[in-house]
Write a structure and sequence with these properties.
alpha/beta; NAD(P)-bd_dom_sf; 303 residues; 13 strands; Epimerase_deHydtase; Rossmann fold; NAD(P)-dependent oxidoreductase; Lipid_A_modif_metabolic_enz
Length: 303
């Protein structure tokens, strides 16, 4: 089975590629802007006819689209998250219409929800900002296509390799700079989020890519538990042995202010994919910290 992973060099894409590479009978293909990609393409700008020709030559049985932008200006966010999936769907429909498409969406598509109410796939989508709106546009391009496609609506991924564009990766980097006992200043940590291990997300993507028969159009992928964002700071402190202070300044992102609580209902993914999250938040944060320590260690250094 030939499976193409787009965005294979990113946080979600690297872990997804690793999961798929381990499956028997899978030939993994990589796509994106990285040198040496089997499909060298930027979905935000790729012309559909050229993209279709390249896809026809690769002839994948399944495509997992992990390409996405969580930061940048409006053009970057809209191009990667909205225009990209639309161009991909159009090209796939022209080149390999029988392909299985797995597209990674975002919980930001939901927007605000009442505290204590888990989000199901049938809940209203009312994104609070441009990122969520662009991701929702990408989801609509996928779900309105005639392709055999599923959107995995990913909540807050965390784990080894988490980038500094998100709180866990950024806070880990700041703790490392302040280690062992200086002060780290952060914004408001009172919002509640559903943090899910990136390796569990990757496993869901692999299951969706290889599952027989049609799947629901949208599946939530989260831990099923809302945790205070403060738990990320506490978990990284516990994992690192940091002895300094974490000082909340009271400020925070506009999205945290607008969306104070989110939790996924993952029963549909459990039914469709026999998937459930396996790693608790403490393990994800410990592995995030250790992965950074391994990167910082000199070659050949022992644990």
């Amino acid at each position: 089975m030939r499976i193409l992973v787009l965005g294979a060099s990113g946080f979600l894409g690297r872990h997804t590629a690793e999961q798929l590479r381990a499956l028997p009978g899978v030939r993994l293909l990589g796509g994106g802007r990285a040198p040496g990609a089997d499909l060298p393409a930027d979905l935000a700008t790729a012309a559909v006819p050229e993209l279709a020709r390249a896809l026809r030559e690769l002839a994948p049985d399944a495509v997992v689209n992990c390409a996405g932008a969580v930061s940048g200006g409006p053009v970057d966010l809209a191009g990667t998250n909205a225009r990209g999936p639309a161009a991909l769907c159009e090209a796939l429909a022209a080149a390999v219409p029988s392909v299985r498409l797995v597209h990674l969406g975002s919980a930001a598509e939901y927007g605000a929800t009442p505290a204590g109410t888990p989000l199901t796939e049938s809940c209203d989508t009312r994104p609070a900002g441009l990122y969520g709106a662009a991701k929702l546009a990408g989801t609509l391009a996928v779900t309105s296509s005639a392709l055999d496609a599923v959107v995995l609506r990913v909540f807050n991924p965390v784990g080894p390799g988490a980038p500094a564009t998100g709180l866990p990766g950024r806070l880990a980097a700041e703790l490392r700079r302040a280690f062992p006992d200086r002060t780290v200043r952060v914004g408001d940590l009172s919002a509640y989020r559903d943090f899910v291990d990136v390796r569990d997300v990757a496993r869901a993507a692999a299951l969706a890519a290889t599952a027989p028969g049609p799947l629901p159009r949208v599946l939530n992928i989260g831990s099923g538990t809302a945790n205070p964002v403060r738990a990320v700071a506490d978990g990284l402190v516990a994992a690192s042995g940091f002895r300094g202070r974490i000082e909340e300044t009271g400020g925070g992102s506009a999205r945290s202010a607008a969306v104070s609580w989110q939790e996924a209902d993952t029963s549909a993914a459990r039914a469709a994919l026999s998937w459930r999250p396996q790693r608790p938040l403490a393990v994800s944060l410990a592995d995030l910290w250790k992965a950074g320590a391994d990167v910082d260690a000199p070659a050949g250094a022992a644990e």
